[in-house]
Amino acid sequence: MCPDCGSRRIVRHEELFSLHVAHVDCDAFYASVEKRDRPDLMARPVIVGGGVRGVVSAACYVARIYGVRSAMPMFKALAACPDAVVIKPDFRKYSAAARQIRGLMEALTPLVQPLSIDEAALDLAGTEALHGMPPAAVLARFAREVEAQVGVTISIGLARNRLMAKIAAGRDKPRGFCVIGAEAPTVLAKEPVRLLPGIGPATAKKLEVMGLTRLGHLQALDDREARKRLGDDGPALVARARGEDARLVDPARDTKSISAETTFDTDIADAPSLERHLWRLAEKLADRLRREDFAAGGVVLKLKTADFALRTRTQRLPNPTRLPDVLFDAARALLAREIDGTRYRLIGIGSAPLRPGAEADPPDLADPKAPRRIAAQSAIDALRAKFGDKSIGRGRGLG
Predict the structure, then answer these.
(1) CB contact at 8 A, 303 and 376
(2) Domains of the chain, CATH where assigned
(3) What's the pLDDT score for residue 393?
(4) Among 214, 243, 288, 396, which residue's beta carbon has the most beta carbons within 10 A?
(5) 265-323 pLDDT per residue, tens
(6) Is the entire prediction scored with pTM above 0.85?
(7) Beta bridge partner(s), residue 119
């Protein structure tokens, strides 16, 4: 027990006060926010996701005891945990909580690189004089502040580099604080190759055929053999298997894409029905772009067929935009080419590449009605901010 505060949560490591690269990962973020707002659900299994044909966006740790996992089809999740409380995602609420956490991170160090809505890499090198304590102590205090001010818990990984910090953050969830230093190769050696970020099922299968099932097997390869057996990327893969990572925490590298999608209760094949869903998603996408101060430099249409085949189509835009009607028109043109009798279970719209919000919807002599559309959308946004998302809508969103 800690002699100062009596806590049993003790972290010991020879390099504890010299390491400065951290990975912060919120614990079951969406579900944690929902439990924060509904304390009566604290001991209940909670699943955040769509309808019975949707997928699990997040599952609390109680639900995970029953085998529920993110990205699991909802019908399987409910079969495994029939008593679960299912809540539709509220991304506006989650974004607000994420902004609070990011603000607390940026008070620690300017070197914060968001990796998703609920995780980020931080480098606290050189901040000891500012905070009057080493990075490990600063991070422990930060975890308490997040719980007190935001109402959710986080797990922290502290290591020599970003790769090991991320792996450490996942080892003791929830409310974890894991430290990995020089012992990284030994820690990794017995782990399956799938532990490394970027190694998916297909790559893992190829490695398994070669007899490389553990990271220790990769560690044993020299550069020459790694290149011979694994191709030009082999030496880099072996280096990561040893826990080596030269990437810096780069605040300039941020979100690469923003999207919205929905899974239907029944498969849909006709254009009018698909377009109604597409319009609602275009409005969601435009709202997220505006809130995160981005513009879409292009549109991505995502479709999943009844037999789970994925179709992705892209279209660059003449000018960056965050107007829902411009996003919708571009995606509808892509959708028209896919209306061939195929029945779809999911539709989505995304923005890639992302552009700074300041570049959105510049004046266009070829489109004299653009200022009027921008003004109309601004009025709609203002009304929704004051009276709620359902206070006003456009006719094409009805039905």
Answers:
(1) no
(2) 1-182 (3.30.70.270), 185-241 (1.10.150.20), 258-397 (3.30.1490.100)
(3) 60
(4) 243
(5) 899 999 999 999 999 999 999 988 887 778 899 999 999 998 888 999 999 998 899 89
(6) no
(7) 25, 116
